[in-house]
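Thread: zinc ion complex, take 2
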Amino acid sequence: MRIHALTTGTVRLKRSFLHPSAGVRRQLDLFLPGEWSAPVPIHCWAIEHDGRLLLVDTGETAAARDIPFARFEVAASAELPGALSASGLDGGRVSEVVLTHHHGDHVDGIVHVSAPVRIHAAELRHAKAPFSRVMRRVLRQPLPPGFAPQAFELTGGPFGAFPRSLALSDDGRIVVVGTPGHTPGHVSVICVDDDGRHVMLAGDATDTLEQLHSQRADAVAPSPATHRATLARILAHCRQNATVYLPSHDPASAARLRDGTVVVPG
Ligand SMILES: [Zn+2]
Ligand SMILES: [Zn+2]
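Output below.
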């Protein structure tokens, strides 16, 4: 198995997004003037295994519009095809795409994909809900053309600390687990690498490893309690299994993948 960190440009995030206040200001502050982070990566991931090339998320495109708490910088050359070839991969070989959640910086790259695209049924319901539709219009973040993923359910029973899962490979080494919080139907993909480590492609389960250790719900989670419960579960999984934890926007994710650095829960 080989796992590649693909980078489709960068994004700056408002500090109030990364370190939200409590109470009503948690979301209000996102829309007020504030400090910005340095550019952080917009990763998606390619998994070569058993002759297949799976993508987890598809990254952002140059068409992305800024929102009140995120400023995107994506060159056309950094979109999915360029990101794949930078890793020596041929986009025409992609056999399947799994989306962690429906936000644009994870799904906009599907315009470059002809392989089947799959998403958790609960996330697809959330994406189609009236509130999500209104927010996309207010923030001018339309779903990409051709967004028609197939829905899957997590019917595979527990995997490690996660009560619900779905195997994506016959040998059980690529598994989707439910990680609700950032969005209600958010999932992560865990790959059991050749050394037996669990490489967790965590989408926006958190922005950073630090946020996981702090068990801090993010500013956009509809239910902060659900988000915190998921972060506790991820840490429980890390106690049971040597786990390399890779959020999409953590500047240290690519190095942790390269070095096989596992989480040491406090
Ligand atoms: Zn997101
Ligand atoms: Zn994201």
